[in-house]
Input
Amino acid sequence: MKIMFISDIHGIKENLQVVKEQFEKRQCDKLVILGDLYYIGPRNPMKEEYDVPYVVNFLNEMKEKIICVKGNCDSEVDSYVSEFPIIQDLGVIAVDEKEFYITHGNLYHEDNWNYPNTILIYGHYHIPFIKEKNSNLFINPGSISLPKQENKPSYMIYEENTFTIYDIFGDIITQKRI
Output
């Protein structure tokens, strides 16, 4: 199975066409969204590309392929416009005889995780990384819309036991085979 992971869209349409193109080009089976779908949040700068109706329509067109967890900027009303389920807090997906725990990252993250020998994938921090710590693998695909610390917008692909984080231009940021 091939899975694309994105996080922290925050209602910004700017890079979603690249997401769709890469999703189709790489023939991904699922799109996992790690929260913060529509609202930009009070700490983020308003961007010209902020267009919630566009983002809602874009995601609803892909509803059959989406697995989504709730972010700290997501509200109950977001589930009314989304034609796909939004998992609360923590989910798990089974892939290639492995379990990937998925969450937004505001509640569960590398400093607040007590389950040994697991893979936790989360967003929230807008910084792409793959880290090993205390027998766990912690992965963040970064933000597709509002990257921080001079990172470029990014996404991740899981394929054949390998996680690869790409920037929006298709360059590899980091990679890990498991």
